[in-house]
Amino acid sequence: MVLILLAVGVWFALPHLSGLLGFAKEETGTPESLPPAAYRASSEAGEHPAAAAFDGFNNRYWAPEKAGDGVGEYLEADFAQPVRMMKIVVFSGTSARKDEFLTQGRPARITVELTSRDGEKSSRMLRLRDQAGQQTFDVRGSGTVRARITVDAAYGSGEDRRTAVAEVEFFGRRE
Description:
Blueprint: H1 2-28, E1 32-33, E2 38-41, E3 74-92, H2 98-101, E4 106-116, E5 121-127, E6 134-155, E7 165-174
Antiparallel strand pairs: 1-7, 2-3, 3-6, 3-7, 4-5, 4-6
């Protein structure tokens, strides 16, 4: 009798198990890399285009056309299909190497704005440390088709320096 009840319980629970297992994978699994299909910037300094911030190398960088603190300048990335954004990795400055890192300005604070497929926007302000290397942030959004990273403040800015971003990487799941 117990086995029959157990078998009936499993039978009725099967349709719901896949949803529970998918939720568990979503929350505990390793997010995958989500390279953008297209990218652009508010402006670009000659040899430092927006593409350099999304090329997978942290020794090339994007910098805005005008020197200074770069406040209001942005990078924008589009995804070919909607994604579930989970994490953003930023390498600020010109390089992940300490000796090259300090040669230009670096973002101190950025705003990440995610746009979903239905046009809904959500944003989050992030504070970056003034140090070379990878900085990882939890930034979540469902159905994300575009991400914009706007510079709000900078370290080491000056009239002859540009605020630089070496690399931006997105992680999550394809929907």
